[in-house]
Amino acid sequence: MMNDYLPVPDRYTNGMVYARCGHSGVMLPKVSLGMWQNFGHDVPFERCREICRYAFDHGITHFDLANNYGPPPGAAEETVGRLMRTDFAPYRDELFISTKAGYVMWPGPYGNWGSRKSLMASIDQSLQRMGLNYVDLFYTHRYDPETPLEETLQAMVDIVRQGKALYLGISRWPLEATRFAIRYLAERDTPAIIYQGRLNMIDRAPEDDGITALCAESGLGFISFSPLAQGLLTDRYLQGIPADSRMAREGSLHADMLTPELLAQLRAWHEEAQAEGRTLAEKALRWVLDHKAVTSVLVGARTVEQLARNLGALR
Ligand SMILES: NC(=O)c1ccc[n+]([C@@H]2O[C@H](COP(=O)([O-])OP(=O)(O)OC[C@H]3O[C@@H](n4cnc5c(N)ncnc54)[C@H](OP(=O)(O)O)[C@@H]3O)[C@@H](O)[C@H]2O)c1
Fold first, then answer.
1. pLDDT at residue 4 above 90?
2. Is the CB of 191 under 6 A from ligand 1?
3. 297 three-state secondary structure
4. Atom number in ligand 1 closest to CA 303
5. Within a domain: residue 106?
6. Is residue 213 part of a domain?
7. What residue numbers bound the domain in which 95 lies?
8. Is the C-beta atom of 123 inside 6 A of ligand 1?
């Protein structure tokens, strides 16, 4: 396929804001693009391409992946691999690409959790799928209560030493284990630079659990996943469950989450947002971005229009 993509020249001055990621040298866009859903092989490649081009043209330099994003697992990384070939190879140094390992990925005892065996194989697979020599950021995707923390963390240190990742991150680890990880990685000169957790107007656990405070005091950035609570914090469900919505697809967002109490709260927030001249999605993203520990929000977008509307939060 011919590379006919020419990014717009004003992509760094047309509205994006960048923030330093903790005490690291890295600047991240305030709005980053997550590829958990909407970038698998169930979606036409051209739609993924359109979203990624729009993102890059608007200063979104950070794409977030994991080994198992799809469907099927690995498909989102394959989509990125294809996009690198068709569009983005000349812009590799303008992109900050993350991936993760730790959730179930391939069959058998080595395709899941945090063993050295699993992490070492996973990063090689991810690089191969994406056609990259290195990722910018490699995360432990979740806490593994069975594997010694030192084993998982040392594998991560070694992944950096092997040149397969530039930086390390921690996703969804509990407080004390995170504190241990931060110390372990820093003592080996491969510091964690970021924590990925779910912080949004509905779910404030990282704040309640002390994670955001730990990030701030330890010099880590914080990036919020599902900042729109998978679409709940938009106008999507105010009048029922649309047929093309994530909730209707019955995957990760269950209808029983939409209780009458939550719906009433969403409607109240929607009205507040309208009075402020914003959409609910903009208000929800702004709420996360205004948190002093937060570096960036990781939005999911199924269409260019959704992504465009989410960028309205920066205004
Ligand atoms: N570390 C982890 O364990 C973890 C876990 C989850 C996610 N993540 C990361 O976080 C990223 C984002 O997660 P997420 O997809 O749940 O994020 P999200 O932004 O909270 O939800 C995205 C969904 O909300 C709807 N939406 C988005 N913008 C909209 C708008 N302007 N108006 C109406 N609806 C809108 C769309 O759903 P419809 O399909 O209904 O249109 C879209 O697919 C993931 O891609 C991944 O990178 C990480």
1. no
2. no
3. strand
4. 41
5. yes
6. yes
7. 18-234+279-314
8. no
